[in-house]
Amino acid sequence: MEKYMPRIMDSVLTKRLKLYGAILITGPKWCGKSTTAKQIAKSYLELQNPATRKNNLEIAQTRPDLLLTGEKPRLIDEWQDAPMLWDAIRYDIDNTGLKNQYILTGSATPRKEQPKHTGTGRIIKLFMRTMSLYESNDSTGEVSLEDLFNQKKINGYSDKELEDIAFLCARGGWPDSLTADNEGALIIASDYLESVISNDINTVDEITRNPTRLRIILKSLARNICTTANLTTIKEDTLYNDAEISEKTIADYLNALSKLYIIDDVMAWKPKLRSKTDIRTTNKRCFVDPSLAVAALGASDKDLLMDFKTFGLIFEALCLRDLKIYADCLNGDVFFYRDKSGLECDAIIHLKNGNWGAIEIKIGSDESIEEAAKNLLKLENVIDTDKMKKPSFLMILTAGKIAYQREDGIYVVPITTLKM
Predict the structure, then answer these.
(1) How far apart are CA 177 and CA 367, in angstroms?
(2) Could you give the CA distance from residue 356 to residue 352 in angstroms, rounded to a whole number?
């Protein structure tokens, strides 16, 4: 049996179970939801086990409470296959008033029968992504995001070369890729995408979709990764290969990909500004893991090194994935900023207590770092600090090797030295 690699979700899940009767862990297939849940659960029910599936689904229809029997917390794996269990769990929690009772996992939303009750206050959702670089031991973790919020001094060093960063983008954070050799690790994301195209996209809501059309849309999303491309842009990008595609059709495919947790867009940040400048609110396009974008492009780590524009966007997607994972642990969210004047910021981490930090993401030339620093200082100056807090930190996230603080106070941090 392979040794379990600790996940950031471990501590988040343990803390939340003390507050609620049940936790629903959502996220893409293969990201490790069930494995992580089993580290905490004391009994479990696997609805996709072929040996017991038919019998368990029949019981779920008539006496779902029987499937809840077992030592707590009890894991219900892939609960969406028997959505009536949701109401049974909510009812049980209402009756007992107990915390730490159930963990549900799911890699898709229910196909047909929806729960009658939302479970608000009894069942809360946690979103689990693939592994961050810190979780996969590809980041030293010498620089803590929490320390940056507390404005502490930093130092750190990474021995990763640019070739290593390209490989980490193409490999992604799939747990199975960590036990494979380099060649095998790069195949996993492609196989994952093929599974989505040939099977999952049709079973998620039992609507048959065209695999060729889906490939075209995925490729367009990959080409437009980390941009605010709207449906019109994606349509124009795909017309050469699919002249009959409509924005309505694209929206349907994107909705299905969202249900499978393949898409993980970044929302726009809406701070209080000194002026009345309009803030752009279109989401930034992202996959749940950068390797899916590389796979959709039919590319490899070697291809990224030959196309620095694409590499820069994929690197940004890698950084955003990690920032989201770390921010979740700190009870925060990741946004981006863009206004009509053209001022942008790649990532804003906003904590629930009102503290926030601004981050520019650059692969790392001296010129790009200087440009990023000027951008961060401009953003700091447009924020109305009479109505919201000053930034806790300004940071440039890079593919470099040394973590340090500039004379202007801005942190320069390699992504391979960062942790939560």
Answers:
(1) 35
(2) 9
Q: How many helices (H) does the chain have, and how many strands (E)?
A: 15, 15
**167-209 per-position pLDDT tens digit:** 999 999 999 999 999 999 999 999 999 999 999 999 888 889 9
CATH at 91: 3.40.50.300
φ, ψ of residue 179 in degrees (nearest 5): -100, 0
Mean residue pLDDT of the chain comes to: 93
Based on the fold, state whether residues 228 and 364 are members of the same structural domain: yes
Q: Which amino acid is at 195?
A: S
CA dihedral 163, 362, 149, 392 (to 10 degrees): 170
- Residue 137: inside a domain: no
What's the rounded Cα separation, in Å, for the pair 379 and 345? 8
Give Cα 93 distance to the centre of its chain. 29
Closest CA to 252 of 286, 190, 291, 210: 210
Same domain, 226 and 86: no
Instruction: Check whether residue 86 and residue 180 sit in a common domain.
Output: no
